Amino acid sequence: MGVQEEIKKLEDELLHTQYNKATQKHIGRLKAKLAKLRDEQQNPKGSGGASGPSYAVRKTGDATVAFVGFPSVGKSTLLNKITNANSEVGAYAFTTLTIIPGLMEHKGAKIQVLDAPGIISGASFGRGRGSEVLAAVRNVDLVMLVVDVFSPEHIPILEKELSNVGIRLDQEKPDVKIEKHDRGGLSINTTVPLTKIDDETIAAILGEHRIHNAGVLIRDDIDADQLIDVVLDSRSYIPTLVIVNKIDLADEPNLKKTEVAIGNRPHVFVSGHKEINLEELKDKIFETLGFIKLYLKPQGKKADVEEPLIILKNSTVEDVCNRLHRDFVKNFRYALVWGNSAKHPGQRVGLDHVLKDEDILTIVVKRSL
Ligand SMILES: Nc1nc2c(ncn2[C@@H]2O[C@H](COP(=O)(O)OP(=O)(O)OP(=O)(O)O)[C@@H](O)[C@H]2O)c(=O)[nH]1
Ligand SMILES: [K+]
Ligand SMILES: [Mg+2]
After folding, report:
1. In this protein, which residues make up the domain named OBG-type G (predicted)?
2. From the CB of 74, is ligand 1 less than 6 Å away?
3. Is the CB of 296 within 6 Å of ligand 1?
4. Per-residue pLDDT tens over the stretch 171-190
């Protein structure tokens, strides 16, 4: 029997084994066997190196996005349909045991798509290895919350689990600057009225983090949670796209009900299995990420208008340097920019300059690389 057949056999057995106290051990063993076989399949003997399944995936492409959802909502099915990947699909929970990357090319952008093991309530506390899965999601550019059409109530549970590991969905990083001093107490300045937090609360929160002397400049109407996020400085702010899968199984009233439950956040109705709306899904991913075009102009030469660089909106000069050459940041002198982000044509800017669509950019480095 080949590996693939063995896997199939174990999957079938798992599918037909009811979970209870008496079968717990048996199911455990089946899953262990299955995992070993999948590992063998992924890393054939003699391929060298101890490259077992890993949660750490190297980012590639113009952006990285990840599927996050309960078990068996169809994440792997979708990955296989929109990328070049081949992730195991099964009719039982926790078919996917590691992060599986795939590459999707759409409208000139290369987007890395990550498939992940299913998330359940309590995942952030380690249920189902959930904390490792969630940690791997921290660095992506877009989280795709996948639910099946009958379970939109999963969305707030997923948000809660992501929030528990410091991932803030669809929120801007609050504009708060805290400059610590040696003495002088706290001086709090705001540019907008604060309606959700008062100075005493701010002082109390900062005091909890041993910040007693500092200049605080607040430019957003933040609440206490947001201030704590800023103080901890380890939060990821990531946009989301809700994917409602398995619409082939639903009727009109079901679809309506789910649509209402989702409200006005970006979403798309699809069927991975029946290949419904998959082009629309790709468009939505592209659109939600938000790409801009950048024209590179080598020093003293004309800008390359034929082949613009596709970059994420809000990218900085530093992001572009990192994309172009691993030594560009280290050897960076300055950059020149023409176009929408420039105060005047050929403005001289630094690494933190934020670029806009159709800018022209020249990067000047210390020595020829
Ligand atoms: N009817 C229907 N079934 C689907 C659809 N997409 C996936 N499925 C089925 O749902 C089951 C689970 O699919 P998977 O792709 O393994 O789901 P998953 O979310 O990756 O599951 P885990 O890796 O276990 O978390 C499989 O039996 C799929 O064939 C769909 O659009 N419609
Ligand atoms: K599954
Ligand atoms: Mg899967």
Report:
1. 63-290
2. yes
3. no
4. 988 999 999 999 999 999 99
